[in-house]
Amino acid sequence: MAGEIIFKGLKKLSIQAKSVRMVAASENLSYGARSGRSSQKGDNGTDLLIGQAPDPPQHTTEAEVLDAYIGRLKEKAYTRIKWGGLEEQLFLVIKTRGLVGKEVTANIIDRDGIISGKKMGSISVMQGEHTALVALTGKVRNDGFAVIPFMVKSTEKKTTDLWREQIGQTPDKKARLCILVDAHSGNADLTVTYRGNNPKEDTGPTAGKSNYWLDTANTWFELRRKNPVIILDAGHGDNNAKNSVFDPGAVDGTEYEKDYALILADAVNDELINNGFEAYMTREGDINVDPQKPINWRYEFANEKKGDIFISFHLDSGKNSNVFSVYQQGKGNETESKAFAGILMDKLAAIVTVPSNSIRQVKGYTRYNTLGVLNNFNGKVGILMEFGGIASDTNREGIKTNRSTIAQAFVEAIKEYANEAF
User: Fold this and answer.
1) Which whole-number Å values give the CA distances from 60 to 11, 57, 186, 192, 268, in the listed order?
2) Quick check: 162 and 225 in contact, CB under 8 A?
3) Contacts 24+ apart (CB under 8 A), 282-288
4) Torsions phi, psi of 353, nearest 5?
5) Over the Cα atoms of the chain, what is R_g?
6) At what angle do helices 393-401 and 257-274 cross, to 10 degrees?
7) Which pLDDT tens digit goes with each residue over 314-335?
8) Three-state DSSP state, 123
9) Cβ 75 vs Cβ 25: under 8 Å
10) Which of 40, 179, 250, 274 gives 317 a disulfide partner, CB atoms 3.0 to 4.6 angstroms apart?
11) Arithmetic mean of pLDDT, 54-79
């Protein structure tokens, strides 16, 4: 086919046209297996089913590498992402045709040499317990995909810390990466066609090939110092009928604080995940808890997930619409918590009523008090948000109507804070 780059055997290269045809990647592709299969929209709008073998090639000696991307495993699906952090569990997903059972390799390329020390150099990554100094290696599954887990991490902590420092010294605190796939060197019996994108920054001997892959917008994958873990705690919601425990929070008739706290936490969670953050909710509905430990499970869950930012959502019992943030005195994370709260309240000011004293400090809370979740959280930032009074019709309606806009403000605040702090 005209316009394609074809590799034959180990070193033979056949170019059938003066110009190279690039096949764009789709933003809608995510691969994985939910109960064995996961249906997602492909480039042409058709469903791609993981677990179902692709159509066989016309000739057994021909093969293709159709796509490659970096993803996260979320709900049993390998979802394409645009950025990630050092030491984060990531997955390299390579979509092929005609390569079932064959091994493919790939390098993670560092555009500016921030980590590798050389422009367009390959970086060392962890594949399992080993350091892959040259390339990641994986076998193509029966469905045509090779899925290779990896971390941008060294076997030595001091080296990883050095990488983090080097990324932090860049103007925007990011390193730019792409993927270089090789399916032909180890498969001399096949003619392999690649459908990737060659970055314009590559002017070396590999320039002109089509076995590079950038992200969904044909730009570089962004590696940051860390992808912070965010814990979203919808306050109250305990409903243990066996132990006669019912904790709706503040009440106004049939309106309960627990439900509005959950509306807010759920909206923020969705928006964070859509923007590539690692986020977890302490509850997704009413829950049954030990009445002797009414809040322990919240901070224990947050600490188990190694949370970096903890946000607890609440309303009060009044009719006001004021929104404010609370952080814990004497916890050791006061400075960071106050800094984040300041950024967040600035973002929220255009959406909700933010009083002049919107950032408040509390002290003296113990393990079993209401704000014990802050006192016992081990992460970098811990705040409790009060979103006005449950008894205000206007306030309740505002939360329901503006939940998406409020969630976007949280994400923008977390982005701004995380870019400086992590």
Assistant:
1) 20, 6, 16, 11, 49
2) no
3) 282/231, 282/232, 282/233, 282/234, 283/233, 283/234, 283/237, 285/237, 286/237, 286/238, 286/239, 286/258, 287/237, 287/238, 287/239, 288/238, 288/239, 288/240, 288/241, 288/242, 288/245
4) -80, 115
5) 25
6) 20
7) 999 989 888 978 887 667 888 9
8) coil
9) no
10) 250
11) 79
CA 186, 187, 189: angle at the middle one, nearest 5? Answer: 145
**pLDDT tens per residue, range 214-233:** 866 678 999 999 999 999 99
Alpha helical stretches, state H, 276-367: 296-304, 334-348
Do strands 103-110 and 175-182 pair parallel, antiparallel, or not at all (unpaired)?
antiparallel
Q: How far apart are CA 195 and CA 66, in angstroms?
A: 5
Phi/psi of residue 417, nearest 5 degrees: -65, -45
List the one residue out of 347, 294, 301 whose CA is nearest residue 325: 347
Question: What pLDDT shows up at residue 204?
Answer: 65
Q: Answer yes or no: are the C-beta atoms of 72 and 92 closer than 8 Å.
A: no
Angstrom distances, CA of residue 234 to CA of 214, 260, 309: 38, 8, 14
Q: Which of 207, 288, 280, 297 is nearest to 240 (CA)?
A: 288
| Backbone phi, psi, residue 260, to 5° | -75, -35
Which helix (H) or strand (E) segment holds residue 165: the answer is: helix 157-168
The CA distance from 166 to 293, in Å, is 44
| pLDDT for 15 beyond 80 | no
Name the one residue in this structure whose structure tokens are 């994958």.
221
What the block records as the tokens of 32 is: 């994985």
- Contact in structure between 177 and 220 (CB atoms under 8 Å): yes
Residues near 393 by beta carbon (within 8 Å), at least 6 away in sequence: none
Q: How far apart are CA 147 and CA 193, in angstroms?
A: 19
Per the prediction, the chain carries an average pLDDT of 81
**pLDDT score for 19:** 31
| Per-residue pLDDT at 170 exceeds 80 | yes
Alpha-carbon 138 to chain mean position: 23
